[in-house]
Each structure stands twice: as structure tokens, then as C-alpha cells.
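REQUEST ID: PR-0412
SUBMITTED BY: lab tech R.K.
PRIORITY: routine
TASK: structure prediction, single protein chain
INPUT:
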Amino acid sequence: MQFDTPATTNPIDNLKVVGQPIHRIDGQLKTTGRAMYAYEWHDPNMRYAYGYPVGSAIAKGRITSMDVSAAKRSPGVLAVVTTLDIGERKKGKFNTAKLFGGDEVQHYHQAIAVVVAETFEQARRSRAGQGRLCRGKGCIRPR
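STATUS: complete
OUTPUT:
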């Protein structure tokens, strides 16, 4: 393949695509800041919940137990779901590590629990990381 002659004309070279206005039904609302996005839409009759993932403090190892009682007692917390609650899951076809489930930690900050609360801040602030992790022969208690 040689690139010694110019390419034939195409829609981009003829300025029929790039630089041309395209009417979008939501364009004016978005460009003027008046568009309502999904996150901004709130139904006053609906109860919302927010989740926050808790990452592993080690890069590789096994979770032997998790004490989430303190997180469950935190203000606004509705539930705490750990990978031990879910059980073993297979790795997805396009994933390099298991996403959530089982006791195996495959990488640093892998999600090992999800805190569900009434607000995002309450979910983030809860203390769900009180787990016991084993790395090889010795166990460590993360902060």
C-alpha cells in the first residue's frame, strides 16, 4: 500500500459532515443550561437509595470474614452487601478480574462491599471496611 497520491474526495473533505449544523431536539436546552438530566429528575413520591463501593485494602488475598455491624448502624444506611453475601461468580468474557462475589481479592481496591444509604454522603461515610483479610499465611486487619 502506497500513499503517494491524494485520496479521492469524500464527505469530510467536501465539508459536508464536519462543521455543519445539525438540529437536535435537545440541543437548545442543553446549550442554554435548561435541560434536565436524569440525575436532576426527582419524584417527591419516590424513595431513593445511593450506593458506595468499599475497596479492598490489599492487592491479592482472601476475605475470611467481614464485620459490617458498625456500617449497618451508621445514620441513613439501608443495607450493606458484601462479596461474601453474593457468593462465587465467574469472570465475565471481557473482564480481566471478577467484578463482585466470592472471597478472592484479585487486585487493590477491588469492590468487596457496597453500602446502600439514603444519601450518597451517608453511604460514603459509613464504616464498612471492618473486614479480616488474609494475604498468604498471615492475616491483616485493614484500617
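NOTES: Residues 48-140 form a domain with the Aldehyde Oxidoreductase; domain 3 fold (CATH 3.90.1170.50).
REVIEWED BY: pending
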